[in-house]
Every structure is written in C-alpha cells, then in structure tokens.
Write a structure and sequence with these properties.
The protein is mainly α. It is built from eight helices and no strands.
C-alpha cells in the first residue's frame, strides 16, 4: 500500500520528479560512499606508531622514523613518510604535497553534495512553476477547472516538498563531512608541523655533533 501511495505521489508530481529522483539517487550514493570511506579511514589510524616516529625524531634518528612510517595505511604516517623521504631536498614542500593528496581524497564528491543542496530546491521550484502553469492553462475549461487547479497545486507542492527534503538531507550530510574534513586537515597540519620541528631539531643536533667532531679532529691534528 505504501509503495502504491509513493508511486501515485511521484506520478502526480509531474515530469520534474524524474530529475528530482536522479538527484536524490546521486545524493544518497555520495552519502553512502563518503560514510563508508570515513569509517574505513578511521580504522587505519595507528597512534602507537605515530608516537614511535616522534620519539625517533626526538633522538635524531630520522632513518628509524622513516622506517616506522613506511608502507603504513594511516594517512598521517603516509604524509610523514613522504616528508622524511625528501627531507634532504625540501621537507616542508614534500609534506605539503602529500597532505594535499590526502585532503583531495577526503574531500572527494563534497562539491557534488554542495551542488545538490542548491539544485534540488530549484528543481522543486521549477516543478511548482510548471504545475501552476498547467493549472492556469486549463482554467478556461469550466468542467476541468476544479480538477486542473487541484492537480496543478498538487504537482507544485509535491515537487517543492521533494526538492526541499533532498536539499535538507544533502545539507546535513555536507556539513557533517565538511566538519570531518576540517578536523582531518587540522590533524595533517599538526603531524606535518611536529615532523618539521622535530626533524629540524634532529638535523641541528647532527650539525653540532659534526662541528664538534671536526673541531676535535682539527685540535688533534
């Protein structure tokens, strides 16, 4: 019975219900895909190994820190590994490139949801206009005027309501995923900054040791 009612409302909504249906399908697909992606991504985090990397960098052991981060599924560790693997050239640049790649993956399809938030109400509004136009065109027929007005208003309200529902759902999902992305960006920035600071300290320690060794060697000579 429910399915029949849904189909009846869909038919009464007019032709505009088909693009609205396609829009809803895209929105639901993106929401499901992003939800699964974030769930799987959260399971890849390895806080213990991240602490090991920081500890190794604090002692100046860059090679061990890089070895800890190698082949990790954790996006934070992937960024750190990419930076440590290129610290001799440009640590900061390598970290920024790697972080940009991770952010692009995390923000995938958000522009689609953003578009749907705007598009769905506009499609509903278009259905409202076409429904009212159809009703006014039939007002000249006395026998069909009541039926035309009722059908036109029903078409207008169904399309508008459908577009608004899709927009509300897409907006909630967009804000949720945007918040997740902002938090993820902060974590990447924190990891990159810690890596840059600790690596700089490790290199400074090595330079001091090298200078001290050269001074002792010169004094002996």
């Amino acid at each position: 019975m429910t399915d029949n009612i849904v189909v009846q409302y869909f038919i009464k909504g007019g032709w505009i219900m088909w693009p609205i249906l396609i829009t809803s399908f895209i929105a639901v697909s993106v929401i499901i895909e992003r939800s699964i992606w974030w769930i799987l991504e959260s399971r890849k985090r390895d806080g213990d190994k991240l602490d090991q990397i920081y500890s190794a960098l604090e002692t100046g052991d860059i090679k061990s820190a890089s070895a800890y981060a190698r082949n990790s599924r954790d996006p934070l560790l992937r960024v750190i590994w990419h930076g440590l693997n290129h610290y001799h050239a440009s640590l900061q640049g390598a970290l920024q490139v790697a972080a940009g790649i991770e952010l692009e993956r995390a923000g995938r399809f958000l522009v689609v949801l953003d578009t749907i938030v705007t598009l769905a109400p506009l499609l509903g509004l278009l259905g409202t206009v076409t429904g009212l136009i159809r009703a006014f065109f039939r007002l000249g027929d006395v026998e069909l005027s009541e039926q035309a007005i009722g059908g036109g208003i029903a078409e207008a309200l169904i399309a508008t309501a459908s577009g608004l529902v899709i927009a509300v759902v897409a907006l909630i999902a967009l804000n949720y995923f945007s918040a997740k992305l902002a938090k993820f960006q902060f974590e990447l920035q924190t990891a990159a900054t810690n890596t840059e600071v600790l690596t700089g300290s490790a290199l400074a320690v090595k330079d001091k040791e090298s200078i001290s060794y050269e001074a002792r060697f010169t004094a002996i000579a």
